[in-house]
Write a structure and sequence with these properties.
Methyltransferase, Cobalt-precorrin-4 Transmethylase, Domain 2; Heat Shock Protein 90; 35% helix; flat
């Protein structure tokens, strides 16, 4: 809570943000911002400050603040009652209206649902509204009953195979019947199957799990392809088999009697990406997931943007709290040993690429979906003769990371590559001296780019 003029001036100096808005007077836009903050992480509105941060003050009567509170309460649903504080500065009144993240979401203003993103308010999509409602109930879409399918649409054999995988993972045996086990896992509720159960155990053709994969010689010339609409556990295996078939392999002579196989991409990274695609996909979107294998890269596209407002910048820097769109599917994949730890997938993918000596993968939101691109290019190929031969693999991975993830600052790179900031500063200086990278932007918001 801001309580002194000094604290107020410091906050104004930082400017508008994801949690701060300036308004010259109390109007409907103030209520809209309060609602948007409530649907996000909370925030403050300074009334009596213009867009440039100039203190203009606001005229108040004895009834002003109570009237403001009443208007906010009457025009928000569920009703919001904010904290209000007045600070006098330069003989002018600035009113601070503060609201915390609301526990029951989403909150609306005159039947409009708003969400705070960066320094502005956005109207929430139907998907965002549904997600906020499910999060409030500590649930997710896959826990809900599938009213279009029933037990005739799922396979008992696949259920029994799943149970054996869980037993193997935990080295135990279930004494219950398959139906009881499904009920305990909430895969069956009120004697009806959930969306999660349908995706895991569908008998034949699955309406919502479509994945297309192809080997492309050019952007339009497909030389091999596969189309899958089956249960998601089988999709993992089928996709990895198909991708592996189209990878180049080299044989490395070691001291052992057998030669070591080495693929041009790390198989562990591919498996991790495929698992993430299937577990985190938005199955409410009618589009298929798509995998494209080119001569120099593999693209993995999933319908559905990053979940819960997660940004690419947060993803790359590992500066986020892991949340999942499909809680039930995630749990089931963990129970049968396919997922080791929640939220570690992106870090593991990047780690596998560095260990395999290929350039860093690229993560991007595109066409209302999320795409990961693996590149075949070796780390050493990203740096020319200007950087001498004695530079270790660390600086090569740094250059590769900046190339594929421009605009990052040292703190973010350090978190991402798990390299101390002091070490990065030395490597960055060398790359800058060789005119390989440049810093663009201000000290607070800028980052490094390849030349």
């Amino acid at each position: 809570m801001i309580v002194t003029p000094k604290e107020l001036l410091l906050a104004i100096a930082d400017g508008e943000s994801e949690t701060l808005e300036f308004k010259i007077s109390f109007q409907k836009e103030v209520i809209e911002s309060i609602v948007a903050f409530s649907n996000a992480r909370g925030g403050k509105v300074f009334v009596g400050v213009d867009d440039l941060g100039k203190i203009v003050g606001v005229e108040l009567t004895k009834e002003s603040l109570q009237n403001w509170i009443n208007q906010i309460k009457q025009n928000s649903s569920p009703s919001i009652i904010p904290n209000i504080n007045i600070i006098e500065i330069y003989k002018k009144n600035v009113v601070i209206i503060e609201v915390k993240e609301y526990p029951i979401k989403p909150v609306s203003y005159k039947n409009r649902y708003l969400l705070r993103r960066k320094n502005s308010n956005h109207v929430m999509s139907m998907e965002e509204i549904a997600n906020e409602y499910l999060k409030t109930k500590n649930s997710s879409w896959d826990y809900y009953i599938d009213t279009s399918q029933d037990f005739n649409d799922i396979s008992l054999e696949k259920i029994e195979r799943f149970i054996k995988r869980v037993e193997k993972t935990f080295n135990k045996s279930f004494a219950d019947t398959p139906m009881k086990i499904l009920q305990k896992y909430s895969l069956v509720q009120d004697d009806k199957i959930t969306f999660g159960a349908y995706l895991l155990f569908v008998k034949d053709f699955c309406l919502i799990s479509g994945i297309q994969a192809g080997r492309f010689k050019t952007s339009t010339d497909i030389i091999d392809s596969i189309s899958l609409n089956c249960d998601i556990l089988n999709e993992v295996d089928e996709l990895i088999i198909f991708i592996r078939k189209h990878l180049m392999v080299e044989y490395i002579i070691t001291g052992s009697p057998q030669r070591e196989e080495r693929y041009d991409y790390p198989l562990d990274a591919i498996r991790e990406i495929v698992l993430n695609m299937i577990v985190h996909r938005d199955y409410r979107d009618s589009s298929d997931s798509v995998i494209k294998i080119f001569d120099d890269r593999i693209e993995f596209f999933n319908p559905g943007n990053l979940y819960d407002g997660l940004t690419i910048e947060q993803l790359i820097s590992n500066n986020y709290e892991s949340k999942t769109r499909n809680k039930l599917i995630s749990l089931m994949f963990k129970e049968c040993g396919l997922i080791e730890k929640y939220g570690s997938g992106i870090s593991r993918i990047k780690k596998f690429c560095i260990e395999h000596n290929i350039v860093a993968p690229k993560f991007e939101e595109i066409q209302k979906g999320f795409r990961v691109t693996l590149y075949k290019e070796k780390l050493a190929e990203g740096i020319n003769e200007g950087i001498n031969e004695g530079i270790n693999e660390g600086i090569k991975s740094l250059f590769s990371f900046i190339k594929n993830n421009p605009s990052q600052r040292i703190s973010h790179i350090s978190d991402n590559l798990n390299i101390p900031s002091k070490t990065l500063e030395r490597w960055i200086k060398q790359l800058r001296d060789e005119k390989k990278i440049i810093y663009k932007g201000s000290k607070k918001t800028g980052g490094y780019f390849c030349l």
